[in-house]
Design goal:
five-stranded antiparallel sheet, alpha+beta, about 15% helix, globular, 7 helices, about 450 residues
């Protein structure tokens, strides 16, 4: 009896400590997280073990996984980073398309399977593909520390009407290629997470560098400093503003009390330029300011690029958020990863009153969860396009929350396709974007 009590006590303490390590990033959480990544790749096919960014897919049919694989996945799921993951539907490409209520257009996306981007029609037919491998651009060793896996996929991409594409190699650099995937230029500026092109055709991206010390803050080791970096269309750097210093230079400096004391302290994951139409909706926003997101602080903020300071910030309704975006009515749309009782949600709220005017939440019928990444886009017809990244899924919902379009990432790995490549973002592009361009017709053989 005593032995059983002792075992129970040890198990309880171990479980409790596991929760604490995951919550506060204590030892051995980081080691377990890296261990998970290594183990995850061992489950994939030989050709995908050392490349791409994958997750255990959710809701997959039971017969698609062997007992041995299931045991391995269950062990992985016991780690803090994967806890709560389930198996995914063994379905691919466009699975739902209601022509009457879905917003017509093209779908542009990147995923964790490789360094390429795709343009699809609403039925899921491939119209065009872009690809450029890391080794073709930078064959030498990296001059800075970065995960090797980040060489193997594009984290974000932007498509221009003429077929040019900007692509982000996570934490490494930004590249521009033309419609035929020929390299135009490449900058090893440590771009990460996001890229945005404003109305003046200036490129905004997030960059970072390692630092050891700071004259105002105390750190326990090396930390990453994030920047909003502005480039010309030719890749020339115009300006660079530190996100960390923008907080310190402002009345919102106290938000930094919750930052880690080493490593990726802000993990800035969004940059969006405020245009004149949005600026006219509220005195809080000014044209040319940028909206950013720090999931480690659970904060979104606006930076005045001229003053190099945060002029507005907000937190409280979300946890580890992604992709805040300002709508034409002055509201903000945001992907909340874990702030809805451990599930994900997408919310539209008034940034002045903080009143939530619309939300899409997880239900028993339509489970919705992406612990990391995630994206949202308000469409012209009022629908919302949501990218549930970890599940390799994108879906469009009406204001009444009816799903009228759904896409499942076709890139799977593992003997039974039990892993799905992270679907970083699906963007719906208007048909009018290509009205005056002929490259798309030529590429698809319709001209």
């Amino acid at each position: 009896m005593l032995k059983k009590k002792t075992i129970f006590f040890i198990a309880f303490v171990s479980f409790a400590y596991g929760i604490v390590t995951a919550t506060y990033n204590l030892f051995p959480y980081s080691a377990l997280r890296y261990g998970y990544k290594a183990a995850q790749h061992l489950l994939t096919k030989e050709e995908t073990r050392s490349s791409g960014f994958w997750h255990v897919a959710r809701q997959m049919e039971d017969e698609a996984i062997s007992d041995e694989q299931r045991e391995g996945i269950e062990k992985l799921a016991s780690l803090p980073y994967l806890r709560g993951s389930k198996a995914a539907k063994d379905v691919q490409d466009v699975t739902i398309y209601d022509k009457t209520f879905a917003q017509d257009g093209f779908n542009f996306y990147v995923s964790g399977h490789g360094p390429e981007a795709f343009l699809l029609d609403m039925q899921g037919n491939l119209l065009h593909k872009w690809r450029y491998a890391y080794e073709e651009i930078w064959p030498d060793e990296l001059p800075f520390d970065e995960w090797e896996i980040h060489k193997t996929f594009w984290r974000r991409a932007h498509l221009f009407a003429n077929g040019d594409v900007l692509a982000v190699f996570e934490g490494i650099g930004l590249v521009k290629i033309d419609k035929d995937s020929k390299l135009l230029w490449a900058k090893q500026i440590r771009s990460h997470h996001d890229v945005f092109v404003d109305g003046q055709e200036q490129i905004y991206t997030l960059t970072r560098r390692w630092r050891q010390e700071h004259d105002k803050l105390s750190f326990e080791g090396k930390y990453l400093e994030d920047f909003v970096t502005v480039l010309s269309m030719e890749g020339r750097e115009i300006r660079k503003v530190s996100v960390l210093e923008s907080f310190l230079n402002s009345d919102y400096a106290s938000l930094l009390i919750n930052t880690a004391r080493k490593g990726d302290i802000l993990h800035t994951n969004t940059v969006e330029v405020i245009d004149s139409q949005v600026a006219a909706t509220s005195p809080m926003f000014k044209e040319g300011n940028v909206l950013i997101s720090s999931p480690t602080l659970h904060v979104i903020a606006v930076i005045d690029m001229e003053l190099e300071k945060v002029v507005w910030a907000l937190s409280g309704m979300w946890k580890y958020q992604h992709q805040p975006t300002l709508l034409n009515n002055g509201n903000i749309l945001l992907f909340d990863n874990l702030g809805d009782g451990g599930k994900s949600k997408v919310v539209e709220f008034n940034p002045l009153t903080q009143n939530v005017v619309w939300a899409y939440r997880s239900t028993l019928e339509n489970e919705f969860l992406s612990k990391t990444s995630g994206s949202n886009q308000r469409l012209a017809n009022g629908n919302t396009l949501i990218t549930e990244s970890n599940n390799g899924r994108a879906f469009e919902v009406t204001p009444d929350k009816e799903i009228v379009w759904e896409f499942m990432n076709p890139f799977r790995a593992g003997d039974k396709k039990e892993l799905v490549a992270t679907l970083f973002e699906v963007v719906r592009l208007n048909n009018s974007m290509f009205a005056d361009e002929t490259w798309l017709d030529i590429a698809t053989g319709t001209n």
